[in-house]
Specification:
With 132 residues, the protein is α+β, with helices and mostly antiparallel strands. It has one domain. 39% of the residues lie in helices and 23% in strands. It is built from 4 helices and 5 strands, in the order αβαββααββ. The protein has a 3-stranded mixed beta sheet with strand order 1-2-3. A hairpin with a 2-residue loop joins β4 and β5. It is globular and about 40 Å long.
Length: 132
């Protein structure tokens, strides 16, 4: 997760045109701390950069899942997050999980947790069972 100081620095660089995007973690920090207004009367568009290298252009903030525009942005974010889930940082994986639940979408298989159990088979050895 991004610190407030680094998030503000990213926002400054983005607003001044020194950066073409802002990280998802910094965006969430800025919204949570009130540095970006999250009311539904004013819309902002921000290019969101993910740790898998994908930049999602012009995401409307706040992300309103009850509007068509918000759903489109949420689906674009989900597609970008799920395109290379193994390259995401833990915060982005958690965000993707919450977004998938909110949209009623399945998680990519590589993000599901697997547990290995060993069960005795017979004298030949063990069978590994994988549960998702």
């Amino acid at each position: 997760m991004s610190s407030v100081g680094s998030a503000l620095n990213e926002l400054y660089n983005y607003v001044k045109g020194l950066a073409d995007s802002i990280t998802l973690a910094s965006l969430v920090v800025l919204l949570r701390e009130g540095y970006i207004a999250a009311d539904f009367t004013t819309k902002h568009t921000i290019n969101v950069r993910l740790s898998n290298g994908v930049v999602v252009k012009e995401v409307h903030i706040p992300l309103d899942l009850s509007s068509e525009e918000g759903l489109k942005d949420a689906l674009r974010l989900y597609r970008a997050l799920s395109s290379a889930p193994d390259k995401l940082d833990p915060f982005e994986k958690q965000f993707m999980t919450r977004l998938a639940r909110a949209l009623g979408l399945p998680l990519p298989k590589s993000t599901r947790r697997t547990r290995l159990h060993t069960t005795p088979k017979d004298s030949e050895g063990l069978i590994l069972e994988v549960s998702l």
